[in-house]
Amino acid sequence: MSNLVGKTKVICENNPSVLKKAAECFAQFPDLDYDLIQLEGEPEHLQAVHNGDPLTHTGSLLQFLSDRRGDIVVLAAPDLPFPLPRGFEVIALLDSGKPKDFSLNPEYINLEQLPEETDPLEGYLAIVALEEKPELKSVFEAADIRPNFGKVTLVGFGPGNSDLLTIGGDKALMKADIIFHDDLLDQEFCDKYAGEKFYVGKRKDCHSFRQDRINRLLFNAAQGGKRVARLKGGDPMVFAHGGEELEFLHRNFVQVEVIPGVSAGIAVAAYTQIPLTHRGISSSVAFVSGHSDSVQIPQTDTLVCFMGGFNMQMIARKAIASGKRGDTPVMLVHNISLPDQKEFFSTLEELAGGQQKYPTPIIIVIGKVVALRNNSELEVLKPVFLVTGTSAEKYNKLGTVIHQPLIEINRIDPNPELEHHLTHLYHFDWIFFTSRYTVQFFFEFLNHYGKDSRSLAHLKIASMGKLTTQALKKYGIIPDLEPADESSEGLIKEIVNKGIQAAHVLIPRSNLGLQVLPENLARLGWQVTRPTFYENKYPENLKKLDLSKVQTIVFPAPSCVTNFVRLYGELPKEKKFIFRGKETEKRFLELKQIPQ
């Protein structure tokens, strides 16, 4: 005691029980010269702050240390705040009650409900001082009972295959006096370890022990000086209550080591040979627990869902509601790494329907990486196109197509103007069809008036492009003229290059038909008749789509650009664009320059 200068100031609240226990403990130190400073009254209402941490009740005692009005604080260990505010340290844990009697017998361990228990630190006194006070710590070192506690090691067993247990985990199990294990592991493999084994596994609606009981069992074993291994499937710190056990043991002064295991969420990639991340396909992955109805779906390329066997329909619906496509591939894996591992493949849309049943336990992987099982990287990496016109077939071979028509086509009926022209077709030399809809509606009108393709025998036919030509062939007509550049400009260029003489042309059009073709034909001396016989309008009930996965947006007509801005508010800067015709690109450039 010679290293202490003067009397040691001991702070203690005016609690008869604590004072009695403190006196009993301090009787072990006859050479300690100290003054006992008792705090009067109930200090719960007091607030004190040390290094930014708010302290209440016990904090008011600790404030005496930070104010240098005391050297140590003695308090009942259950009242000790956790974590202890910065700047303070428990220099000793003293046992002021009767010796703790540790035992683990089968009857006690396997009870469905363990007896009601007091606080783990009941009967202990905590001695608190400011940090870096070695002279005070040395005074109580011999009486500190913490070195007598055993150690708990949280060991990850992996998803089930014993080959995945780490060398560190094996060593810890070899040294363990007691092994608390769950049911997601190889029971026969555990027989090689000498320690007593106690099953504390948990499954949905079938728990051998509540988590708080497991925590207490770990503490009781460590309190008795045992080397304890808590063996868990997967990794102790990933959806395995490892954090709860760790905090409980730290709170009660038990030394803890954590040895990682192979998480099922990681093992699933190796045992199915489907990567969770892949350049160009997935740059982010998230792990979620699916056992709760409150599961949240993060915005990530790949989603790995643990414990989702009973909620997979709800998970799939939430994923779709969060913006994921219904055709997003899904893999479900039962008993990862075990000989009876089974793999199932589906889509979010199919899973949301909830028609098929799957075995549990099961882990769910959602994302485009799943498609790598049956497709090459190049196939999975196909770009995503948003096609805003009425037809998307042309782009299906180029990549994944999202079709959102931003125009609606409706025939104008009755149509006296068109009826007049159809009954006087002999006035015309040519008919120019600018879209498949002009073909469709033209022949519908023609048939309505009792005519068919023979009425066009004397006419030459021009088609704007391949889709229009395909529509004409359905009526037995092969066009005389089709430009390589499927646009009004391309058709004019074809006429000029081939030296086609000016004539009288009928051009069926929509209410939004462009002026480029008739104006250029007029300059070349053509006589142009343009009856309006269908309308192009903004569709009802349009909703914004998630465009985050779209690389290219296709605008077949100027009205598609106009309606896109009307729906989305602006033209995205980071996308690529495909335009049909210079007028469409011109409309795009005009709207791009207008502040939205």
Description:
It is a single chain. This protein has 596 residues and is an alpha/beta fold. It has 5 domains: 8-148, Periplasmic binding protein-like II (D-Maltodextrin-Binding Protein, domain 2), CATH 3.40.190.10; 151-262, 3-Layer(aba) Sandwich (Cobalt-precorrin-4 Transmethylase, domain 1); 278-375, Methyltransferase, Cobalt-precorrin-4 Transmethylase, Domain 2, CATH 3.30.950.10; 382-407 and 538-596; 411-535, 3-Layer(aba) Sandwich (Rossmann fold), CATH 3.40.50. Helix content is 28%, strand content 23%. It contains 19 helices and 30 strands. It has a 5-stranded mixed beta sheet with strand order 2-1-5-7-6, sandwiched between helices. Strand 11 (202-203) and strand 12 (206-207) form a beta hairpin. Helix 14 (436-448) runs parallel beside helix 15 (466-473) and helix 18 (558-568) runs parallel beside helix 19. The model is unreliable at 41-56 and 98-115 (pLDDT under 50).
Pick out its properties.
5 domains, 23% strand, Methyltransferase, Cobalt-precorrin-4 Transmethylase, Domain 2, five-stranded parallel sheet, 596 residues, Cobalt-precorrin-4 Transmethylase, domain 1, D-Maltodextrin-Binding Protein, domain 2, alpha/beta, 19 helices, five-stranded mixed sheet
